[in-house]
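Entry 14. Ran structure prediction on the chain below.
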Amino acid sequence: FIHKDHINLAAFFPRLLTDLLSDTHSVSREACILQAFVIYSYATNENTILMLMAFDRYVAISKPLQYNNIMTPRILSVLIAISWIYPMLCIGIAGILNARLTMCGNKLWKVYCHNWEIVKLSCANTIVNNVFGFFIVTTTVIMPLSFILYSYVKILIICRKSSLDFRRKAYQTCIPHIVILLNFSVALFCEVTLSRIATLELPIGLSIILSLEFLIVPPILNPLVYGLNFSEIRKKIQWIIKACKQL
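Output, structure tokens:
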């Protein structure tokens, strides 16, 4: 199947390679809005998926005997469908609102198309876009992260009251998710900060690196973190390291 990280990279790299091979770094408005839609659908979906993973771990640790009754295949299918459909619907509406704006500028200070950067090019009234953008941030970023924080606080409370073996298994289950969460949260913070705080003066090179971290690092780190969670992969890596040392 196609992972959401692959979709994100497919939205970014073709446009980047075209710009590198071309002397005219331009993109049509329609293609720009489409790229922004795909990239930010990925970003918002990542948050909702991380929220579902936190909920799954909370149920598994707090109610292990009832886990199969709570997390049924039907419930999981509904939750996953909502986590995909809702972000795409919100970002799609934001794209339609952006498409209706009158553009007075044509220069983006990003290496990819960005919803807020498109809005800043408009000379029309953008209050509706701003309000809806705040709604999207609240429902797809702030609320999921708040629920994730709540879930892990409850998990830590449960672990403190449990045996050493129970804590070890719980930490082993949660650590990969926490690493992915921290990595994506830092990337998202850099992206939002660079986009919204116009007074923040950074060297252009550093700004580009921080903005690309949001697109490139999570898709590369995610498979590594989850892959190392499997004993077979860890054993294979250890075997390769030992073989290299013997050369």
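Residues 4-246 form a domain with the Rhopdopsin 7-helix transmembrane proteins fold (CATH 1.20.1070.10). Will compare against last week's run tomorrow.
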